[in-house]
Write a structure and sequence with these properties.
single chain, 281 residues, alpha/beta, Rossmann fold, eight-stranded mixed sheet, 12 helices, globular, disordered N terminus
Length: 281
Amino acid sequence: MTSINQTSGGGHRSVRVLAVCNQKGGVGKTTTTINLGTALAAIGEKVLIIDLDAQGNASTGLGIGQEQRHITTYDILASRASIAQAALPTLVPNLFIVPANSDLVGLEAELLGEQNRSFRMRDAIAALNANQRSRPNELPFNYVLIDCPPSLNVLTVNAMTAANSVLVPVQCEFFALEGISQLKQTIDGVRATLNPTLEIQGVVLTMHDVRAKLSDEVAAEVRNTFGSKVYATMIPRNVKIAEAPSHGKPILLYDFKSAGSQAYVQLASEIIERERRFLAA
């Protein structure tokens, strides 16, 4: 079986796929996906976000209304459309999104019994790579960020099967590590059966409050658990980050000078550096 992550002939570098996962809700998955994608686009990368959550919050947070979601991730996973057909431009230059809506709710039942149900997203991204190779004059996507739902279901497994690596947001609050062992077991299971090259790209600490001793204690505990996998950059608890989605904008467009905005720029730089080391290895 050919991996979608290999570099093809002619010097074309296949897109790098990061799945943003944590089965706990409210940890900042969507916020991290949106703002990391924006920051990567701002430093010259062409980025595609795939909204894999039936709530469609990533789509809303990037200003994509329900009336614009004619082709969604449901259509991709149901093999009714391609990523190239579904991708929509956003307000951010070089940042695109495949939107989602509530149609995803019934997808797991529809795919029950389908032998390739865990490979639908991987195959769709393989087709995207092929499409990009056939259009050498167009700027290709460098990164695909998959915003996963807050559960370990067939959608999350599809994301992990398609991904090069997993990005795990962990909030600096009580019970932060609750369920992380289950997430690691799922990653190990996908690596063992579906995607042998899958790895944890990194763990990002979110909602850090410099005034709260608990935040520092949780951050220390997470760093003790994951070691060097934890990024140095911590995303602060910031009112501007919370306000931005209601305006359909990432924080970098809503308030570039805010602490939250600058943290995501720093996080993007860290991720790019890790990616460069990986590709050079």
